[in-house]
Amino acid sequence: MLAILGASGHGKVLADIAELTGWDKVVFFDDAWPEVQRNGAWEVVGNTQKLLTTLSDYNGVIVAIGNNNIRQSKFRQLKDAGAKITSLIHPSATVSRYSNIGPGSVVVAGAVINPFCTIGSGAIINTCSSVGHDCTLGDMVHICPGAKLAGGTTVGDRAWVGIGSSVRQLISIGSDTVVGAGSVVVKDILENTTVMGVPAK
Predict the structure, then answer these.
(1) pTM score, two decimals?
(2) Which of 20, 126, 130, 196 could cross-link with 112 by S-S, CB 3.0 to 4.6 Å?
(3) What pLDDT digit, counting tens, does each position of 31-58 carry?
(4) Is 133 considered catalytic here?
(5) Residue 178: which of 64, 67, 14 has the closest Cα?
């Protein structure tokens, strides 16, 4: 049985992937419980504290929270408590056997991860995005739907690469940086920076 922390739209995506990949039962936990009782087709059975006290009941746990900082905080809580943190990869995603995916990460439908990539913990590689060869992505990174990273790109912890954006090869994107939707990144970006546009500034 899989426990998902975060009864969100993103959580629905993770639950769907879980069922497609053989998890026989999926339940949600969310801090809005007990006001929130369901997330789509799935039951919400408790909050974070309840999950922490029932971890032994679950074969796997994953965090489904889009905010990178909150996802990291919840991930650390669960890890410190000894949770069996799992990753999820959609059956239609293409992940090279020569790449490594960190615990608690998710690779969504149509995404591509090419050879010799390293993906950190708790990352989201979203729908139809692509990660070129030899890329290194930190913890809690979100590569949004349709975003494209060319080969040799480095993305720091908690960075957000917006929907439909493109990143030239060998670019470095710093931690806690936000790349706006549809942007084209052709120069390195310092950490804790927001850029947007074509080219991104």
Answers:
(1) 0.96
(2) 130
(3) 999 999 999 999 999 999 999 999 999 9
(4) yes
(5) 67
